[in-house]
Amino acid sequence: MKTLKLKWIGMLAGAAFFIVGCSAPVHVEKDDSVDFSKYRSYAWVEKNESGNENQVNDLMERKFKQAVSAELEKQGWRKDERKPDVLISYDVLVEKTESWQREAVYSEPYYRTYYNPYSHRYYTVYYPSEFIGYQNYSVPVREGTVTITVTDAKTDKVIWQGWTTDQLNSRNLSSKEINNAVKSIFKKFNDLAGR
Questions:
Q1: pLDDT at site 157
Q2: SS (H, E, C) the chain
Q3: Does the pTM exceed 0.70?
C-alpha cells in the first residue's frame, strides 16, 4: 500500500513539475526605493487611441480590467476613480515570429530475402528503421506579449512593471490566455511588492 501511495505522489510531483516548467516566463522591474505598503487604491489609465474602436478590442479591454482588478482585490486593493494611489495600464503586442522545431529522422524499415542452400528454402529477415539524425525546421507562430504597468498617481513615475510572452492559439488573446498571463504576472507582483 505504501508503494502505491509513493508511486502516486511521485507521478503528481512529476506532473506539477512539467506544468510549472511549461509556463511562460514572467519578467518584472520594480522601483526599489518605493514602499508598496502605502498603496491601497488604484484607477485605470484611459487609452487615447485614434481611429475606430471595434467590439473585439472593447471586449478584450474589459477582460483585462476584470482579470487585473480581481488580482488586486485579492490583495486588499480597492478601485478609486477620484483619488487613487496608483494608475494601472496594460499593453498587448501580438506579432508573427518563427518557432524552431527539431524532429528525429529514421530510415525506412525493410525486408531482405535469403536462400538457405542447406535447407533449400528461402527465409526473410526484417531490418527495423535506424536513427539517422535530426531535422530542424521553422514553423510560423503568433506570440503575444502582455505588459502591466503600475504608476504612482502623485509623481507619475512608473514604480512596477511586469510582462510575459507566450505563443497564441488564435489571432487575438482568448479569455483563458488573458487570465493566465495576468495571474502569472501578479504572482511576481505579490513577491516583489511584499504582499
A1: 92
A2: CHHHHHHHHHHHHHHHHHHHHHCCCEEEEECCCCCHHHCCEEEECCCCCCCCCCHHHHHHHHHHHHHHHHHHHHCCCEECCCCCCEEEEEEEEEEEEEEEEEEEEECCCEEEEEEECCCCEEEEEEECCCEEEEEEEEEEEEEEEEEEEEEECCCCCEEEEEEEEEECCCCCCCHHHHHHHHHHHHHHHHHHHCC
A3: no
